[in-house]
Amino acid sequence: MNTMPYPDLFQILGRPLRPTDAVDPQAIAKAEQSLDTTAPQALRAFYLLAGNAHDFTTVYDQFLPPADWSLQEGKLVFLEENQDVVRYGVDCGPAAGDDPPVWITTTGDATEWHLVCERCSEFIATMLVWQCGFGEALPHGASGLAGPGTETALKAGWRLVGTVNDMRAYVQPGQVACLVEWSDGLRVFVGALSDEALWALEDALDVALESED
């Protein structure tokens, strides 16, 4: 599966990228020099296009500015969960390749890394959709338990952006859907640009939505 280019993804989410969304290349170079490592190309490409798109990158989980990147057990930490309970890191350095895996660890002293996504580009795109469906980057959101027809509808009419730790993220123009095993069962988190488009997803995805407003 090819990762959707970031400009295309932001466009389909109704938020075209702007020049001010780009991180200065010198900021990345300074961070790399400070950490004595090289950021993978997939991570660099995202930051050079959208690292300052804070209405998407920091609305829930926090994509860290390069000045706040850190190295932990050989992983370049670039994303923190909103309560800083877990952090995400990517393999880095010349041997990592252009689009290496992303890992998760808990904060604290006893840390173990667990693989969440095979490719950094897929991880970033998927997490941007999660920021919309769960983190309210899109103005209207809700969730509900998946119905018998939910997965079929998503596979038939939506584009799969990627999978992170078994959470599947889908998009279509102005709408997102994230399907994930939750404490009460298989749940779908949706976001939309308008209230009308949000509630239209009840029938379209066979789900009884519970408003998050």
Supply the number of helical segments. 8
CATH class of the largest domain: Alpha Beta
**Quick one: how many beta strands?**
12
Q: What's the CATH topology name of the largest domain? A: SMI1/KNR4-like
Shape: globular
CATH superfamily of the largest domain: SMI1/KNR4-like
Give the amount of beta strand, in percent.
25-35%
Number of domains: 2
How much is the radius of gyration in Å?
A: 17 Å
**Topology as a string of helices (H) and strands (E):** HHHHEEEEEEHEHEEEEHHE
CATH-level-2 architecture of the largest domain: 3-Layer(aba) Sandwich
> Main sheet, how many strands, which sense, barrel?
6 strands, antiparallel
Mean pLDDT: 94
Structural class: alpha+beta
Q: End-to-end span in angstroms?
A: 34 Å
Regions with little confidence, pLDDT below 50 for 5+ residues: none
Organism: Acidovorax soli
InterPro entries: Knr4/Smi1-like_sf
Protein name: Knr4/Smi1-like domain-containing protein
What would the keywords be for this entry?
single chain; 213 residues; alpha+beta; SMI1/KNR4-like; TATA-Binding Protein; 6-stranded antiparallel beta sheet; 8 helices; 30% helix; 29% strand
Summarize the structure in short.
It comes from Acidovorax soli. The chain has 213 residues and is α+β, with helices and mostly antiparallel strands.
